[in-house]
Design goal:
Layout: E1 2-3, E2 7-10, E3 44-45, E4 48-51
Parallel strand pairs: 1-3, 2-4
Length: 53
C-alpha cells in the first residue's frame, strides 16, 4: 500500500526502465482482506505509482 505521500517509481520519462520488471504479490487465499482493496493489491491512497518503460 502506497500512502501518505509515498512513491513507487520504476524508470522516469527521461530514462524509461528497459528491462523486464516483475512485481510478485505473496499471500494465501485465506489472507485477511483490506477493506475496499482486497487481499493482493498494489493500492495507492494519497501517494504516487509512477511506471515508465
Amino acid at each position: 500500500m502506497i500512502t501518505d505521500g509515498g512513491l513507487l517509481q520504476v524508470g522516469t520519462e527521461e530514462e524509461p526502465f528497459q528491462h523486464k520488471g516483475i512485481i510478485t504479490l505473496h499471500g494465501h487465499h485465506r489472507s485477511k482482506e483490506l477493506p475496499i482493496y482486497g487481499t493482493k493489491v498494489i493500492a495507492v491512497r494519497n501517494g504516487t505509482l509512477d511506471l515508465h518503460g
